[in-house]
Amino acid sequence: MFGFPAGIDTNNEAIPEKDIKVSTPIKEKKVSFFRVAALNKPEIPMLILGSIAAVLNGVILPIFGILISSVIKAFFKPPEQLKSDTRFWAIIFMLLGVASMVVFPAQTIFFSIAGCKLVQRIRSMCFEKVVRMEVGWFDETENSSGAIGARLSADAATVRGLVGDALAQTVQNLASVTAGLVIAFVASWQLAFIVLAMLPLIGLNGYIYMKFMVGFSADAKVRLNSL
């Protein structure tokens, strides 16, 4: 009564299992941090300027602590000397604030420029590899246009956060720790050694806390996926 177009097979024959191609999951390849950082070589001047700004930004907080202690000493001086010292320290704090207003944006701008250039370079490299793939590669579900676009958008931004923002924060923290240790050893080397002896315990505490947070996040993700 009803006809089927020519060329369509109406037989409900099962397809042999050997002819069914099962797509195997793609194994993620670990990439060295230095290999990713090497992609930022053209932006080395920006990274150097950003590192200098990060060092200055990290030293500001220890200097602020020294200035606070000096201001406290000024309150125990006679009224005439207290007035002149107050004006002097007010000017010093104002200069420190101006330096902070200049250094912090400079750190953010230089590292952001280097990070954006890295994102652009990684996206260009990934897109060049994608367009050279075989046609059958795009038939896979995980290689759809939406998934590829999400990878180019999210993964490259993640790399930028690893090399750009993390590097700026690392340089700033190292400068703060170094300046703080120098000040501590100059003020009281006995107390400085006690603080250094406690640093491994503080680091162990942070490591355990991070492991617990990662474990809880993984368990929550598994439970949500099972719903």
Structural classification: mainly alpha
Number of helices: 5
Q: Count structural domains.
A: 2
Mean pLDDT: 76
CATH architecture group name of the largest domain: Up-down Bundle
CATH class of the largest domain: Mainly Alpha
The radius of gyration computed from the alpha-carbon positions, rounded to a whole number of angstroms, is 29 Å
Record field, number of beta strands: 0
Instruction: Name the CATH superfamily assignment of the largest domain.
Output: ABC transporter type 1, transmembrane domain
Oligomer: single chain
Which shape, going by the Cα principal axes? elongated
Give me the CATH fold name of the largest domain.
ABC transporter transmembrane region fold
- Rounded to the nearest angstrom, the distance between the terminal CA atoms is 47 Å
Largest sheet: none
Write down the secondary-structure element order. HHHHH
Beta-strand fraction estimate: under 5%
Residue windows where pLDDT falls under 50 for at least 5 positions: 1-25
Helicity, as a percent range: over 70%
What does the model show?
It is a single chain. By secondary structure, the protein is mainly alpha-helical. It is 75% helix and 0% strand. It has five helices and no strands. The chain has helices at residues 33-38, 44-74, 79-131, 145-187, 189-226. Helix 2 (44-74) packs parallel to helix 4 (145-187), helix 3 packs antiparallel against helix 4 and helix 4 packs antiparallel against helix 5 (189-226). The longest helix has 53 residues, at 79-131. The chain starts with 32 loop residues before the first helix and ends with a helix.
